[in-house]
């Protein structure tokens, strides 16, 4: 089954609200996690990453939280804007020496 | 600075035909990757090349071959295309191996349809 997955395939929010996108993983050995954003017709773009020795990491309007106990990862977007509308993927490094494995994605829709 | 360039952007094939997707990066990256993206499936790794001269299988390598021609170029070949290979293909590159940094740089994608 899918080991890197998102709880909800779609999320709709109003402009200005905070968005939370969730991701669960099953491999306890994974030690590195990344969030990507993919706009329509484009390739994914790196947003933020976090290593397993951290619980939280902040960027510009984005925060990633990692809960290793329950193997859960979340991306929080503050003051969501229409330009944030996209598909968001979490990805993990399951095993040293291998490439990243992506989850299925959550489509975020922001309405004005 | 072009980043990661994929060609062609669109291609229609008949079952059994062969074709090669080309990818080139101008960022002097060591590692390159091929993913496919299907509706509801996210991105699945086909093959990757951690450094020039090496290639490794990903999650879904069957039906594909790759060549790391040099540090810049990483091609994906379908020897005998099947309808199940209809997908959007993304090439990506990174400076280091993906477990060290997740900042993969993706191309714009190649949409392949196999009839």
Q: In DSSP terms, counting alpha (H) and pi (I) runs of 4 or more, how many helices of chain B?
A: 0
Helicity range of the residues of chain A? under 10%
What is the string of SSEs of chain B from the N terminus onward? EEEEEEEEEEE
Radius of gyration of chain A: 13 Å
Structural class of chain A: mainly beta
Tell me what you see in this structure.
The complex is a heterodimer of chains A (112) and B (115). Chain A is mainly β and 112 residues long. Chain A has no helices and eleven strands. The radius of gyration of chain A is 13 Å and the shape is globular. The termini of chain A are far apart. Chain B is mainly beta and 115 residues long. Chain B has strands spanning 4-7, 10-13, 19-25, 31-38, 42-49, 56-57, 65-68, 74-78, 87-94, 105-106, 110-114.
Compile the SSE list and pairings.
The complex is a heterodimer of chains A (112) and B (115).
Chain A: E1 4-5, E2 10-14, E3 19-25, E4 32-38, E5 45-51, E6 56-58, E7 62-67, E8 72-77, E9 86-93, E10 101-102, E11 106-111
Parallel strand pairs in A: 2-11
Antiparallel strand pairs in A: 1-3, 3-8, 4-5, 4-9, 6-7, 7-8, 9-10, 9-11
Chain B: E1 4-7, E2 10-13, E3 19-25, E4 31-38, E5 42-49, E6 56-57, E7 65-68, E8 74-78, E9 87-94, E10 105-106, E11 110-114
Parallel strand pairs in B: 2-11
Antiparallel strand pairs in B: 1-3, 3-8, 4-5, 4-9, 5-6, 7-8, 9-10, 9-11
């Amino acid at each position: 089954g899918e080991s890197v997955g998102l709880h909800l395939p779609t999320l709709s929010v109003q402009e200005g609200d905070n968005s939370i996108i969730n991701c669960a993983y099953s491999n306890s050995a994974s030690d590195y996690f990344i969030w990507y954003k993919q706009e329509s017709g484009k390739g994914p773009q790196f947003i933020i990453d976090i290593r397993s020795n951290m619980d939280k990491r902040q960027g510009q309007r984005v925060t990633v939280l990692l809960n290793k106990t329950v193997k859960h990862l979340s991306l929080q977007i503050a003051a969501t804007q229409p330009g944030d509308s996209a598909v968001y993927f979490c990805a993990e490094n399951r095993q040293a020496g291998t490439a990243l494995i992506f989850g299925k994605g959550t489509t975020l829709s922001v309405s004005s | 600075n072009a980043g990661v360039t994929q060609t062609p952007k669109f291609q229609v094939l008949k079952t059994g035909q062969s074709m090669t997707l080309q990818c080139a990066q101008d960022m002097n990256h060591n590692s390159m990757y091929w993913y496919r993206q299907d509706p509801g499936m996210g991105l699945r790794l086909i093959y990757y090349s951690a450094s020039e001269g090496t290639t490794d299988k990903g999650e879904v390598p069957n039906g594909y071959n790759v060549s790391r021609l040099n540090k810049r170029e990483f091609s994906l070949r379908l020897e005998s295309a099947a309808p199940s290979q209809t997908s959007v293909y993304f090439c990506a590159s990174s400076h280091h191996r993906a477990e060290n940094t997740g900042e993969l740089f993706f191309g714009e994608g190649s949409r392949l349809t196999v009839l």
